[in-house]
Amino acid sequence: MRIAVDVLGGDHAPNEIIAGVALALEQSFPPDGLLLVGPEQLIREKMGSGADCPEIINTEVRVEGEESPAEALRSKADSSIRLCVDAVARGAASGLVSFGNTGATVVASAVGLGLLPGIKRSGIAVSLQGVNGRFVMVDAGANPSPKPEHLFHYGLMGRAYAQDILNAENPSLGLLNIGGEASKGNTVLKETHALLEASNLPFHGNIEGNQIFEGNVDVIIADGFSGNTVIKVLEGFGEFLMAG
Question: Is 71 left (phi over 0), alpha (psi -120 to 50) or beta?
Answer without folding.
Answer: alpha
